Structure prediction request, 158 residues.
Amino acid sequence: MPGYIGLDAMVRTRPLRFTAALTGLVVCGLLAGCATHKTRPAADVAASRVTQIGVNSYLWRAALDTLSFMPLLQTDSNGGVILTDWFINPKTPGERMKLTVTILDQDLRADALRVAASRQVQQNGQWVDAPVAAATTQKLEDMILTHARDLRRREVRG
Prediction:
């Protein structure tokens, strides 16, 4: 008879149909799982990368706080540059310092900060350029980084 499938053919095709049906169900289940709306975890308020300004905000605030004793000549939060005017320490009136702080990245990292210093000493009523000890700029960088990390920790704790 045409169109008649014998018992042998049914037995042989049944496992194939079952496997195809099972595979179809698994694929539908996986696709349905993709379609569900999963809530994203809340953003970390104190992430190491804060981009509301052009540079890392913790480094920016820490640099401004650390240099607050010096007169600021220019600040650029988008470019990450802080330029101070000459500062004369009352304890050493014969010398003065000028700093440039550059924040190079949006991440809170040690290599995202650079401090450059100029120093002058007074000789015969004239200001003359003098060398700056490498430890001076390194210490300033360390102070700014430590303060930036403290600011971040305080925000994480809430």
Summary: Confidence is low (pLDDT under 50) at residues 4-11. The first strand starts at residue 72 and ends at 76.
